[in-house]
Design a protein that fits this description.
Radius of gyration: 29 Å
Strand content: over 45%
CATH class of the largest domain: Mainly Beta
InterPro entries: C1q_dom, Tumour_necrosis_fac-like_dom
Protein name: C1q domain-containing protein
Keywords: Signal
Length: 225
């Protein structure tokens, strides 16, 4: 008994002022275990809120850390977004496009966004996790404001043109005979932090009036895998 007490008295100062290693002579944490460990029993907890602190994870270096269950679940939620124009927007939103240039379509409202990835101020989607995404956008222009020339939609990834659908406006006796709807759809592989924006394109100087009704002008982004 005296021997056990003596060893504990010798160990207490080490525990209080140094790092302790089990299976290693070079500990890098307060308690550094080089090997497996086992919990023979745990205390039951009936508090539902305790779940947010109950997940123990181990990083690539073997460091044990705590992470909330909410953040783990959200990190695996697939992206589902639908947006368009705010209900308070003018019925007709005019955007000016220079010749052979691109102008951001200012979608400024969200109907739903499961991972909070779309910024309505910058009109930009930023992926929170890697995957394959299905991307779609549609707008309806005011036929009275369209001029003859190339006009369509484009999707940019990280500020670089990724895909474009353009349509030549055709006039007959000064009357536009092509439909005012424009749409684009594509699959895109994104990594964490990649951005997506929707832009209008024109082969000439053009002012386009976009009808802001949600049933006519909107976009969707959803993660397919």
């Amino acid at each position: 008994m005296k021997s056990i007490l003596l060893h504990l008295m010798m160990l207490l100062p080490v525990l209080g002022f140094a790092q302790v290693g089990i299976g290693t002579t070079d500990p890098t944490a307060m308690l550094d275990v080089n090997g497996n460990f086992r919990l023979r029993s745990t205390t039951s907890n009936t508090r539902a809120t305790a779940a947010k602190d109950s997940i123990l994870v181990v990083d690539a270096l073997g460091n044990a850390q705590r992470i909330s269950s909410k953040s783990v679940i959200e990190s695996h939620l697939k992206t589902f977004i639908k947006g368009g124009f705010a209900s308070g927007s003018p019925a007709l939103i005019n955007i000016s496009i220079l010749a052979n240039a691109y102008t951001t379509i200012p979608f400024n409202t969200i109907e739903f966004d499961t991972n909070s990835e779309y910024n309505t101020t910058t009109n930009t989607f930023t992926a929170k996790q890697p995957g394959i995404y299905s991307i779609y956008a549609a707008i309806k222009a005011n036929p009275g404001l369209l001029a003859a020339g190339d006009f369509g939609l484009a999707v940019f990834k990280n500020g670089v043109l990724n895909v474009r659908e353009s349509y030549m406006n055709v006039q007959l006796l000064g009357i536009n005979i092509n439909p005012p709807n424009r749409s684009i759809q594509t699959l895109m592989q994104l990594n964490t932090g990649d951005t997506v924006t929707f832009r209008g394109y024109s082969g000439g100087v053009l002012t386009v009036g976009i009808l802001s009704g949600g049933e006519e002008s909107y976009f969707t982004i959803h993660q397919v895998r």
